[in-house]
Amino acid sequence: SSKPVYRATTTAPVNIAVIKYWGKRDVTLNLPTNPSLSVTLSQRSLRTLTTASCSAKFPKDDTLSLNGKPQDISSSKRTLACLSNLRSLRQQLEAADSSLPKLSVLSLRIVSENNFPTAAGLASSAAGFAALVRAVADLYQLPQSATELSRIARQGSGSACRSLMGGYVAWRSGDLADGSDSLAEEVAPASHWPEMRALILVVSAEKKDVPSTEGMQTTVGTSELFARRVESVVPERMAAIEAAIRDRDFPKFAEITMRDSNTFHATCLDSWPPIFYMNDVSRAAVRLVHDINSAVGRTVCAYTFDAGPNAVIYYEEKDSALVAGTAKAILGSNTEGWGGPFYETLANVTAP
Ligand code: PMV
């Protein structure tokens, strides 16, 4: 046909931070006040599947559908920023090689699907923007590395920059005002610590109380604890957790993970007005993890919470009956009201 359809399909994983990103020094570019570090989760349980296509047959405007529902791209500055960055990289290729089809002038159709509840506090925006960027980059046959593409995904959702890689991923905050050095890099591949597991306890599938951008702005502007977190607490923890990952030292990894989740939620409580993401069921999960660790006499599990009540519990495979079994038995029959479901996942499998 004279009007071919070009197409690329990809998937991207969810990541859950163990050193939290909380605070923006630039809201437009999504530049963070501090570095962060996450574990990429297995796509068997949680992933976004995205197909990007372009054709002269398509209507003039780019379109995006998420789980079968058309989204309004024109009102999403973040999506527009990602697409315009990707288009200009394609334009550069086309300018250098006139034999390439002029895909950059064609409108895009992006179709995205999650295999888990969207906006349930399960980091769907991280997987979503990572998949969108990867799919369009593949469609455009861009030569850029995952780290270079992370600069684009970051503008969709900060945490998305960490979902372009598997294993253990650091987001270096960078110093430059244009964000060109604010990138994700793999600290260790999944194969370095293949025993790592994660259990996700969906406490509530409702939309979060305070959206992350708004919550971050309130914390940056009003919390007195926040400055100390950024200046000394996070830099020390980044170095310590990278060493714990290098040494596969689970007790050290676990303590830093739990403390950093607690510090993040403390700065939320210290914001004015205060922000609450954890609830009674979240706190029951915290107590259970500490109870299991003290009953066993060593640290076998660690909790962490993002901007919502759902718990993620990290543990090693050898302790899975103990940790996942106990958590399900106790919290699954919790009279405080359990939202369900549970996702048990290999905590880290290399992203494609
Ligand atoms: O990527 P955002 O803007 O949804 O922010 C995510 C922030 C946390 O999930 C709370 C922490 C993190 O590092 O992922």
Describe the structure.
There is one protein chain. The protein folds into two domains: 188 residues, Ribosomal Protein S5, domain 2 (2-Layer Sandwich); 151 residues, 2-Layer Sandwich (Alpha-Beta Plaits). By secondary structure, the chain is of the alpha+beta class. The C terminus is likely disordered. The site of (3R)-3-hydroxy-3-methyl-5-(phosphonooxy)pentanoic acid (PMV) has 14 residues, from helix 2 and helix 4.
Helical segment count:
8
Estimated helix fraction: 25-40%
Q: What is the number of domains?
A: 2
Radius of gyration, in angstroms, nearest whole number: 20 Å
Mean pLDDT: 91
Number of strands: 15
Distance between termini? Answer: 32 Å
Structural class: alpha+beta
Gross morphology is globular
CATH class of the largest domain: Alpha Beta
* Widest β-sheet, arrangement of strands: 1-6-9-7-8
Low-pLDDT runs of 5+ residues are 334-341, 346-352
How would you summarize the topology of this molecule?
Elements: E1 5-13, E2 15-19, E3 24-26, E4 31-32, E5 36-40, E6 47-55, E7 63-66, E8 69-71, H1 77-96, E9 107-114, H2 124-139, H3 146-156, E10 168-172, E11 183-188, E12 196-201, H4 212-222, H5 225-246, H6 250-269, H7 280-296, E13 301-305, E14 311-316, H8 320-332, E15 342-346
Parallel strand pairs: 7-9
Antiparallel strand pairs: 1-6, 2-5, 3-4, 5-10, 6-9, 7-8, 10-11, 12-14, 12-15, 13-14
